[in-house]
Amino acid sequence: MHDIGRLTRLGFTTLPECLLTVPKEYRDFHEPIEVLPLPDIGQASYMALTLIERAIFDRSGVALQEVKGAFRGYVKVVDGRGQRLHINLIGKPSIEPWMGYDFGATVHTYGEVVTFEGRPTMSNPMVIPPAMIGRVMPVYQGKQNQVSAEVLGEAVTAAMAHINEATCLLLEQALMHEDDFRKFTGLNDPADLLRNLHSPLSVREGEEAVRIAKAVCIQALVNRVEAHRNRPAVKGALLRIDRDQVADLIKRAPFKPSADQLQAIDEIVSDLRSPYPMQRILSGDVSTGKSFTFMIPAAASYLAGARVAIIAPGQILAQQLAAELSSLFYEIPVVTVVGPAGKAKIDLSSGIVVGTTAVISAASKEGIVFDLVIADEQQRFSVAQRKKLIAPHTNFLESTATAIPRTVALVQLGGLPISILRSTPVPRDIVTRIITHNARQKLHDLVMQIIKQGGQAAFVYPRGEW
């Protein structure tokens, strides 16, 4: 199976799932215009233009003959009437496509014409490769600074070989029988919807597929809401939490909890004291106190005899959560699981389990079934990983700053209850300073002083390879 790599950041776990995404728009590359459109109308156009001049430069402004080391450049083209157009190019990805054309060649391009210094100009337009000419091309929505639209588009193209599996996923997620799908959409085969979405013969066909896909999505959410609301009571889901004990645990906070935190704790405890397995989202921005909010119900559940696990996306965060839990509730043992145990035996029943996804294999090895599972930063976990931790009676709380799209839609339609933390329990005092290169040693000394005093510091770089 194709390695989806960074696409996991969009919530995908397998390549066929990429076919369930909906393009944000379509571009028709059937018939280019050969005369420059009116400038400054705020609309991109598909044009066939003739290349007459080209120049590229490095960062110092030195002219180059090859694309290696190129930083900026320009090309000049003419339309069918001989009107000139100046095109600015910044960066190697924008320059490289133009280097394969000889002067006098026709270049198919897509971009917006604007007026600059009295002349028609374009900046970094898209050069249409021959494989796209004569087709309608979907444009996808990536995730800024993480997954580009181009990467997602390439994955969709690769996923077309697995369209049958994607069709089954579509029916599964929509909770629809194939006959119900036919009646709802008017299409004989769900695969036709996916083909029309990603390889339409016309813009109109693609836009109609988007309309149908959105209608299917809404119906899928309605079906899931109904399934969630009609779930049966499950033996073992109810945890006999003492509310007086919850109040005592809250008093241990080294700060005054916010009203949002107190309300969220109450909502979570109410879910846990019901015979229906909890499936709730705890949403709040950084510093709104999500950790303290879910630690109170976790501690109360353990004291009520429940088996509790808190799963973090990384080893450092797991160890921080374990330390915080131990400092707040000294009488509750904490079992930390952040990697393979090897031959060493870990007693997961001896306390609240805090760890990474290594908890999954450890629990399976010991045959431990948890009564309450809390997933911190839910978007880092796949659906398959979460399912491995959950039994029919398990209560599940997802803590996140940004819910994954599928969950957002369920919340908006009332399918999943959500507790939102909007305010911060401790006021934030943010001071910004700009440090020049000459003051780097002073900055280093200050950071070391903060660390020696027990504080924390973070360095953020613009690129991972720095």
From TrEMBL:
Gene3D superfamilies: P-loop containing nucleotide triphosphate hydrolases (3.40.50.300). One of its GO terms (molecular function) is DNA helicase activity. Residues 271-421 form the Helicase ATP-binding domain. Signal peptide: none annotated. Pfam families: DEAD. InterPro entries: DEAD/DEAH_box_helicase_dom, Helicase_ATP-bd, P-loop_NTPase, RecG/Mfd. SUPFAM superfamilies: P-loop containing nucleoside triphosphate hydrolases. Keywords: ATP-binding, DNA damage, DNA repair, DNA-binding, Helicase, Hydrolase, Nucleotide-binding, Plasmid. One of its GO terms (biological process) is DNA repair. It comes from the Bacteria. This is Helicase ATP-binding domain-containing protein. It comes from Pseudomonas putida (Arthrobacter siderocapsulatus).
